Amino acid sequence: MNHLIVAFYPEHVSQRICEMLSASSLPVRTVCSSGAEVIRAVNYMGGGAVVCGMKLPDMTADELADSLEEQASILVVAKPEQLEYCENPHLFRLPLPVNRYDLSASVRMLIQAEEMKRAAPKPSRSDQETIAQAKRLLQATCAISEEEAHRFLQKKSMAAHRKMADVAADIVRGGTGETLGRRLF
Question: Nearest Cα to 162, choosing from 172, 154, 174?
Fold first, then answer.
């Protein structure tokens, strides 16, 4: 399925990127000239892989990633000194100058990441609630942030080869009070 979006400003850069991708058998579905256009395209397609510059007329790549959250995988192509300012951890980065082979390899990986994300099973509503409850419990008893609680649950589930919701359920069932922090950490 072709969900590849290219967005650069000025537009002649988009044309050059599209030519490089087409020469590598990677057809572009949509070319956008603003972040708002990218957001509309991703929403219309139900996700996608976005190749863009650091700055679009209405927003930066970081702002675009924040707006799209997990709906799309984003590859930012820019000068190395500009890429240093990318703060969003979900952005993939490719420094200029770039040749066709590096660009096509990076875009293929981006598309593969997007396809894997689409294929991954989504947790049920009850699983999400159990995970949220376990995070709150970890935060309260261990004095950690929500992000640290999430990473803790991820690590424990990967180490035990279990679903994150199952590990969270164990914590919710058996973990109240001061002993939780000592037992887990």
Answer: 154
pLDDT digits (tens, 9 = 90+) for 16-43: 999 999 999 999 999 999 999 999 999 9
Crossing angle (nearest 10°) for helices 100-119 and 11-23? 80
- Positive/negative CA dihedral, 183, 132, 62, 29: positive
pTM given for the model? 0.67
